[in-house]
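TL;DR need structure tokens for one chain.
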Amino acid sequence: MSEGSFSRVGVVGLGTMGAGIAEVLARGGLAVVGVEINQDALERGRGHLEKSTGRAVKRGRLTEDGQREILDRIRLTTDFGDLAECDLVVEAVPERLDLKHRVFAELDKVVRDDAILATNTSSLSVTAIAAATSRPAKVVGVHFFNPAPVMKLVEVIGTVLTEDGAVDRVAALVKGLGKTPVVIGDRAGFVANRLLFGYLNDAARMLETKHASRDDIDTAMTAGGGLPMGPFTLMDLIGLDTCLEVLEAIYAETRDRRHAPAPVLRELVTAGLLGRKTGRGFYAHDAAAAEETAQDGPPPSVAIVGDEALSRAFAAAASAVGAPTAKIENADLIVASGEEADVASIEGRAKKGAVVLSDGGLTGGGALAAHKPEKDRPLVEIGLTPVTTSASADRAAELVAALGLTPVRCRARRGYIVDALRFPYINDAVTMLDAGYADADAIDAAMTLGCGYPAGPIAEIDRLGIGRALDQLEYDPDEANSAVADRLREQWDLGLTFR
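>> reply
TL;DR here they are.
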């Protein structure tokens, strides 16, 4: 074996993830030895491989000859002894430390002394796994994302015990397979899951405290946050039991309340409602999809007060759908922003049944408030105070939708939905950067390539502004909130950006 290369690689565990890793390695031209606990599990693994490559053939991404070549490179066995000549062995069994310990103890008996042992854990300590071997210096973490043949990101993790060069060799292999490796330190959840699951857990708490509904939270984060799916749709896809396991692993290390699993998540898991795989989680997946109700009738008349971004956005939306403008006294919908938004006076002049939206939030006596829509994402967050009636909320949402905008409702509290979820996540990323176990490029790559975010959190902080982040995180220079990343304060005080 040459110093920087691997020619034969073993994969232990051929579930969906392990089979995917074996396929990726074989696609890269490597000889692969796939090991399972018994013949039944081995046949299931064979089925995963044939189904995945067969799907690629049907989609025209692989020829039948190419499929056969890939499958022929993978030798399937139930004998750990067949791993003896492997240069690298990747363990891909379920996320249980005791099970991984048993696998590594077996690998110790049969694998060459100079071989590298890798664990495909998504949240467990690589150091704790390495402790089960007589060769901890040869152990690295190599976290592929599901589905492995499709996802580009691979987190490569070294420990304080890993020998020089081992991580670099594995990262080079990953890059040669057409993936993007990010090299990071050994922390529970690594980069992607540590950041992602803090956000998902916050969303679960937001639902639990009735800050907003499940559907409104999901809609806000796709329409306003630009994410490919909302947090509850994503948790159901991942599996709520997996979500709970990852959060528990991270919380066990950090004792940070952001990773203490929300009670609603634990209750759903206890009830066996695990998401898509059981047909029900936060959503009922066996139910027919609800049809969107079309907006009938003419658009509402609109009065615009002030010249702030919120008012301008609504004026543009009203113009786009041909909504007539009107005086305050005659308008169906009144949008007021800035210093001219004397909500109490406006409400006194408005006709009966009119809805007043203001960016004043809890000030100025406004019963409703709206966030300005993000550019190219026509989301309006309607903030409800304790005196807002459900009829008023429904009417506000109806009028906003009639302007071609996307309404969501929540309590009129700092950050509404989008900012309340994304800024703590961004703060976590800055804290991670400041700790030094991942750089800005690795953090942003983890979230874009591993989680499908349109931009990474470090890039986002520059786009959104550090001042806006500090305001959302309740930063007070004279009474610093310990939860706010020190690096955020420092960059703000020095007038610096992150990029």
